[in-house]
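Objective 1b: paired records.
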Amino acid sequence: GFEVAAVVSSLVHGLLCGGRGLSATEPMRGDVGLLRMLGLERAPSAETVEEVVKYLGGHAGGPAGAQALLGWLCARLVGRGLRGDLERDGFVTCFGDGSHLETQGRKFEGVSFHRNKGWGLDYCGVSVGPYLVCGGFARGGEGEQKALERLLPGALDFLERTGLRGRALMLLDSLYGHESTLSLLEREGREVSYVVGANNLSRMRRELDDRPEHLWRPVRPSRGWARCE
């Protein structure tokens, strides 16, 4: 008895107001004044929210549609004169990473095992300044690195469309210090500046350790760093 938009709107409101999970709409039920303000006759139950989320998750165009909407919304925000909020030290800082969401049980598509975290789903995303421009779960057998590589072209398209590519600085940790990832950032005509962590790259660490001390140039610390060279 609910339109999908009403369920999604109720869920978003419930989550932003401190609700948790699929039951985020439960406190709204019976709050006549709040529902009237939101333009709803009634709020969906947790069971209804679950059914709608399952429907959207299984819909053929669901994930692609969500990505397209996310990119469109972030491009609108960038285009509304908010670019000053994006730049730091002359760069538009971009950040890509993944989070391991621990789960109970393994009945999830794409579930993976992390030695220190157990079974869970890897959710990856790329942000441009404060905006998460693309995101999604790793597929079965894909892992965090490959999942982010699948998302990166969409983030680079976003930078191109919004005219930010020339000032973009992509920040990634050492998990992405591989040719398959870096080649996406260095593709001719679409290249972006990047900084990739090296603490877990054994060959890089050896080469840096072997460099003579006189080749290192101290840089005046910024951002509260104790040492920068």
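Objective 1b, second protein:
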Amino acid sequence: MSFMQFDSQGFFSKWIVPFFVVIYTYFAPTAYWIGSIGFFIIADFVLRTLLILKSNPSDFVSSKAWRTVYKLGIGIVFILVAYVSQRIFCPDVPLMKILGSFLILCELKSIDEKAKEATGYSLFTYVVDKLIPKR
């Protein structure tokens, strides 16, 4: 093999595959949180879409549906940044758990708002009323 020839298969197996294996191995602990947040974002989207299609199908706008993809991307980026920050800067603080729980709570609140639109009943309002002492 001369200096000017390029062996793409050798380059791929020698450099690219190990690089992706290292990246995958490093970020593997985030899969649980990414999957959980993705589940709740998709559930919110499905509930919102079903409510829109039930009330008036012509109100569905696909450009607004892209916000779900953006929310999912932002959630993934936040979890990855929290994981790297937790590993590098402050290993004693569970940043990924805190941020992941917050994102899931925001999605649950959004699902509860959609459920309140459909049923007129809010579970969060009921729980908050039970937790706050009456005066």
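DSSP finds five helices and no strands in the chain. The chain has a mean pLDDT of 87.
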